[in-house]
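Let's sit down with a protein and look at its sequence and fold side by side. We need material for that, and I hope you will provide a protein of your own picking. Once you have written the record down, we can walk along the chain together.

***
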Amino acid sequence: MTVGLQTHMDRYQKCIEICNKCMVECEFCLDACLHEPDVANRIECMEMLKDCIEICSVSAKYMAGNSQFASQICQLCADICDACAAECNEFKDNHCQTCAQVCRDCATECRNMVQS
């Protein structure tokens, strides 16, 4: 039993870690955006950040639980992370640019996991 557990955790570990990192980075970015002087211009971005936070959390949970739906969830996560990166990239603050890069990294890793 431990061998099977180790195998699926080995397969998912890197993706779980980047999903968790992305979730935290998006939380940080969302909070920072709420305190920017142009907060009204960031509504769509902040809504996308919330979606990204949720899907990254769900993806990590599905992978950790070795769900049969982990690949489908991770594909959706990759798509949402790409969309979030595009939104964040519209703003030049360090927190948005960092978040955009982490989202792109997460999208790449989710796609890699789906293909493995």
The chain has a mean pLDDT of 93.
